[in-house]
Amino acid sequence: MKTLTTLILAAIASASALASPDTVVHRRGNWRTAVELRAQPEFKGKTYVLMPTRKDYAGTREFRGYAQLVASRLEAYGLEYRPASELGTTDYVFALDYLVADPYLVDYGITPKDGGFYENRYPQFVNLFVYAGHVSAKGEWALLCKLSAERTGYFSDTEKCVPAGLEAIFADFPGGQVAPDTNTEAARVRTW
Predict the structure, then answer these.
(1) Which of 39, 76, 118, 174 allows an S-S link to 107, with CB 3.0 to 4.6 Å?
(2) How many Å apart are CA 78 and CA 96, to the nearest integer?
């Protein structure tokens, strides 16, 4: 039997083979959010498992903290949490991924003789994948929706940026009330 990580990676890799999603892009504060919707999930009264996409996140205190934030939001939509041991019997699988990448240097072009001015910037990403809870005949999960938030920030602390990214993601969560856009230039684009 394939491992959980293999199934998640296979589902992500095969996502382009599914029906073309509509992607809605917004600006939420300094976060750029995107919702790629392949199918409208029905959440009320359904069950879910929440898992990390990376093995090294599994069981960490950090991931448990973020999982509690996500779980509280999902339960507000009527979903019922199930432990990972019930994987395969739930209606949905939510996979959480986050990363603060290595910094890059921004040079403002002032020479060191003038005192120089430069700073580090950190690319920050938060992704939440929504899969159908049952495994297909091919041994894969069907990706229903991908929610993502990204920004470039001045700090590398995931404990600060991941909760902020999750808040930005849940502003556009399918099945819930979509929060008013903080930028009037929301764009609907077609991908894949």
Answers:
(1) 118
(2) 19
Residues 6+ apart with CB under 8 A from 147: 33, 34, 35, 36, 127, 128, 129, 130, 169, 172, 173
- Phi first, then psi, for residue 6 (nearest 5°) are -60, -40
Give Cα 47 to chain centroid, integer Å. 19
The structure tokens listed for 142 are: 């069907």
127-162 residue pLDDT tens: 998 888 776 667 777 888 888 999 988 778 888 889
Helices (H), ranges, the chain: 4-13, 61-76, 158-170
Query: What is the value of pTM for the model shown?
Result: 0.73
Give the tokens for residue 96: 């959480």
Q: Which domains does the chain have, with CATH numbers?
A: 4-190 (3.30.160.670)
Q: What's at 32, amino acid-wise?
A: R
